[in-house]
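Support request, please re-run this one:
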Amino acid sequence: MSAVKTVKVTLLKSIIGTKRAHRACVQGLGLRRINHTVEVLDTPSNRGMINQVYYLVKCEG
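Re-run finished. Output below.
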């Protein structure tokens, strides 16, 4: 059995003043407010969203 890999993502900065696409990525990751942490599956699509908003979030493997 292989365990499902997850990544902890925390929103560190406000999304006010960011591009609309970046706000959509933050929302797509399930982040709602500053210091909100969620666990998302480690998939290429989630990795792409995290990489796009790297300056707003903290990622822990």
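The first strand starts at residue 6 and ends at 11. The two ends are 20 Å apart (CA to CA).
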